[in-house]
Design a protein that fits this description.
It is built from 12 helices and 27 strands. By secondary structure, it is α+β, with helices and mostly antiparallel strands. β17 and β18 form a beta hairpin.
Amino acid sequence: MLSAHTGNKSLKRLIACATASLLVACTGVGAVASADTTPAPTLSVPDFTQVVAKTEGSVVNIRTTEAVPVRPRLGPNTNDPYEMFRWFFGPDFMPPGMQPDRRQRNAPGDAEPQERTVPRGVGSGFIISDDGYIITNNHVVTKSNGIFVTLTDGKEYKAKVIGTDARTDVALIKIDAKNLTPLPIGDSKMLKKGQWVLAIGSPFGLDSTVTSGIVSAINRDTGDYLPFIQTDVAVNPGNSGGPLIDLAGRVVGVNSQIISQSGGFMGISLAIPIDEAMHVVEQLKAHGKVTRGRIGVQIGPVSDEVGKAIGLDSAKGAMVSNVESGGPAAKAGVRPGDVIIKFDGNDIDHMTDLPRLVGATKPGSTVPMEVWRKGKKENLRVKVGEMPAASDEEAGSSPKAPKEAPADKLGLKVGPVDSSAASELGIDGGVQVVEASGPAADAGLAAGDIIVTINDMDIKGPDQYAKVVSGLDKGRAAALLVVRGDQSQWVTITPKK
């Protein structure tokens, strides 16, 4: 039995153990284990000032203009009460409820429509040669009638377009200047998750703005031809075309898109890997266009269940769902149901690997291709064809509905929204109106409008849109959130009975 004196000493030692630290362990009444005194590693945010000082002078602000048709102001021979509205909103402005054939056209003696040049938008770019070649995004310069580049010293130049590529959203422009400082080109294949990167550009027209963050994902699949770099660097409208820079001051990507539900930065931005961009730039510089290969197949992913069912070791490859009649793949012996597992010696780990590899192959080349068919591998050889050039319209900025497709019960024909247009507008998904008639026309919708929401359902694409519309009650008004230009508006349409 402990004496009172011994007990007091033990009690004091227990109190000391309890109050010293949560990391100290007390073993028994009279023993205290020592805490680990190894210092934790010191972490600090890098100093970006030197990187910015040597790179921002090579980043440029780009502003563009476009020509819009206008009609002369109301004159003695004109009796159009909506002329002033058309001056501000464009020549196709039509008051709600007025049918297209009731629009008052030019009265006898009215002057013919004219054009005026107006500001179109702002973007960014960066210098890649001392004689004035500049990389930016296709969506920054497309459909413009004037491109003006401003350097950080305030000098402004008019630029000419050398070439653009709608599929990768890359454009090459040039200004008449000498002794410029180009940005060094890095290696995007060396990027790692968690690596610090910077963006320099002109968000909302605020030129030479620097933001920082980390690489949050690599090889993010959002398109057929590009594995994007995903970052948490703040990128907003106006940053498009600007560089993504590593801490060595080298360009590793071209800022292109944001994933957002508000139109502004929400924590995820996407950049075109500089390796991919430079492949495009080399062709644009040499030929003014990009030539890609094609083999004429429609493909889909291979699920785990399907992979096991057909005897594949893993769910890899690209499942052929359709083969173009008379196309390169058909001539090579490819069949629907085949799984393409290798192309020109390269493994197809994901479905999206195939179009990138095929697109990068020179048309006319004959290359080996390995397919999985009926439980075994088949070796084929395919002569790669040439992908038709994609204009902005073909890329989806002005979608065209099949002639035989009827209008839905809202009176609409719709198509997909082009990725570059969605990026410029800051929207995710939606459908673009190709033709409006009936109830939709009565409500004021027109070709080019983008529908992003119906009632409380966000619209992701044409297929989902069709399902949502088919489920609408006839005779009951539906609310559509419509984007026109840089404006959004709710419009109600009552489906046809």
